[in-house]
Amino acid sequence: MICKTEEDRQGMRNAGRLAAEMLHAVAQMVRPGISTADLNEQTRELMLKAGATSASYGYGSAKNPYPGYACFSINDVIVHGIPSKDQILQEGDIISIDLALFYEGFCGDNTVTVCVGEVSSAARHLIEITEEALRAGIQQAVTGQYVGDISAAIAAVAQREGYGIVREFVGHGVGREMHEDPQVPNYVLPQKGARLCPGMTLAIEPMFTLGDAAIQWDSDGWTVRTKDHSLAAHVEHSILVTENLPEVLTLR
Ligand code: MF3
Ligand code: CO
Asked: pTM above 0.85?
């Protein structure tokens, strides 16, 4: 567990702000007819221009590195959707964009789920509730509380709505690496986990499903879907635990 110095906190603020601005810019391009390859190309160019590098591009094993500059996950895809010119967004789709970058040695990691034109009220509600859970989790990210308090707050929101909670992917510490200790699950564990201290930086990222939360992998080795093909939503902020209220590093 790493509690950042004041200097490192400033580095995390800069990386977080850039990641948020970039995610916002790419999310603004979402409309019927655009492909995830177009969104990916825009992400690549924005990172190049800003002097940032993608934390996702090349991630994973040398045998099957992740090929996108961000992850683009449509409808039943929960995480790690791979951009493609054949994936053209259609009215009524929902798409999560998970954008993580390195800037001056620090990682900013954030995700939004956006609607393509008009979507069903069920889809809109799923996204709103996943956002509510993220806010509830962030509220618990206070010195003296435990990682388990963040998890419990997130899980309670999903349970109230009867949504599935994806268990295979969790939030995480974030800093000079994209994934640092501790893990931040979106479900409750018997133990409360690590105690939060000023200077901890966490990526909190609930993933909820309209149906069952069981997952399956596509043959590309990355794309993760709901087994029952129900819709999934995913939202994420990088946050800083302080002496007072939590600071959202990837605020848009
Ligand atoms: N940014 C993701 C996270 O929230 C991880 C992306 S890994 C990738 O932790 F390889 F798929 F890009
Ligand atoms: Co993350």
From this structure: yes
Six-digit token string for 27: 């999310």
Rounded-to-integer distance, Cα 214 and Cα 65, Å: 24
Q: Is residue 181 part of a domain?
A: yes
| Tokens representing residue 93 in the block | 């789709």
Query: Which secondary-structure segment (H or E) carries 172?
Result: strand 171-173
pLDDT digits (tens, 9 = 90+) for 7-45: 999 999 999 999 999 999 999 999 999 999 999 999 999
Question: Rounded to an integer, what distance in angstroms lies between the CA atom of residue 198 and that of residue 12?
Answer: 14
Q: Is residue 1 part of a domain?
A: no
- 101 alpha carbon to ligand 2 midpoint, in Å? 11
**In testing the pocket of ligand 1, which one of 98, 177, 201, 237 has its CB within 8 Å of the most ligand atoms?**
98
Closest CA to 209 of 166, 151, 169, 150: 166
The residue with tokens 């959707």 is 81
Q: Please indicate, yes or no, if residue 17 is contained in any of the structural domains.
A: yes
Work out the angle between the directed axes of helices 147-161 and 121-139 (0-180°, nearest 10): 160
On the question of pLDDT at 140 being above 80, the answer is yes
Return the HEC string of 94-141.
EEEEEEEEEECCEEEEEEEEEECCCCCHHHHHHHHHHHHHHHHHHHCC
Ligand with the closest atom to the CA of 72 = 1
Structural domains of the chain, count: 1
Domain assignment of residue 250, yes or no = no
**Structure token digits, residue 98:** 């998970």
- The CATH number of residue 96's host domain is 3.90.230.10
Q: Which domain holds residue 70?
A: 6-244
